[in-house]
Amino acid sequence: MELNSKKVTVQKSASALCDFLSDVKNFEQLMPENISKFEVIRDDAFVFALKGMPEIALEVKEVQAPEKVVLGAISDKIPFTLTSNIQAIDETSSEAELLFSGEFNSMMAMMIKGPISKFIETLSENLGKL
């Protein structure tokens, strides 16, 4: 299952945005209002939970500065990645798009598609407010 957010313009250079997204503690600023938990567990990993959803632990899997940051689930139960694709516009702004990619059976995919779509759109909107 693959889901894309809309592209948003961020008032940060591509390298500054890449640095921001590579630092996991910054994701707390991007989380939806219905977050019930956010905890940095390592320099490159954090755990979060939204109300009514199980906890999810993510870690930085790959950084291709300044155009890509890939986060991935630590648990094999819900295997997925969240990729931030960054494109420079000029020296002080860039464009970002989030791509969610996961391997789920069709029943699980049906159940999580709506909440995950809403989640990545919220992350994307909050990126645009930086």
CATH superfamily: START domain
Mean pLDDT reading? 95
Principal-axes shape call: globular
User: Which architecture would the CATH scheme give at its second level?
Assistant: 2-Layer Sandwich
Low-confidence stretches: none
Helix fraction, binned, reads 25-40%
Sheet of most strands: 8 strands, antiparallel
Q: What structural class results from the helix and strand content?
A: alpha+beta
CA(first)-CA(last) distance: 28 Å
In the CATH hierarchy, the third-tier topology is known as: Alpha-D-Glucose-1,6-Bisphosphate, Chain A, domain 4
Q: Count of helical segments? A: 3
CATH class: Alpha Beta
The succession of helices and strands, N to C, reads EEHHEEEEEEH
The value of Rg in angstroms is 14 Å
- Number of DSSP E strands: 8
Percent strand equals: 35-45%
Question: How many domains comprise the coordinates?
Answer: 1
Protein name: Carbon monoxide dehydrogenase subunit G
InterPro entries: START-like_dom_sf
Based on the model shown, name its key terms:
alpha+beta; 3 helices; 28% helix; eight-stranded antiparallel sheet; 130 residues
Mind explaining what this structure looks like?
- This protein has 130 residues and is α+β, with helices and mostly antiparallel strands.
- It has one domain: START domain (Alpha-D-Glucose-1,6-Bisphosphate, Chain A, domain 4, 2-Layer Sandwich), CATH 3.30.530.20.
- Helices cover 28% and strands 43% of the residues.
- The chain is built from 3 helices and 8 strands, in the order ββααββββββα.
- Strands 1, 2, 3, 4, 5, 6, 7 and 8 form an 8-stranded antiparallel β-sheet that branches.
- Strand 4 and strand 5 form a beta hairpin.
- The longest helix has 23 residues.
- The N and C termini lie far apart (28 Å).
- The mean pLDDT is 95.
- InterPro entries: START-like_dom_sf (IPR023393).
- This is Carbon monoxide dehydrogenase subunit G.
- It comes from Ulvibacter litoralis.
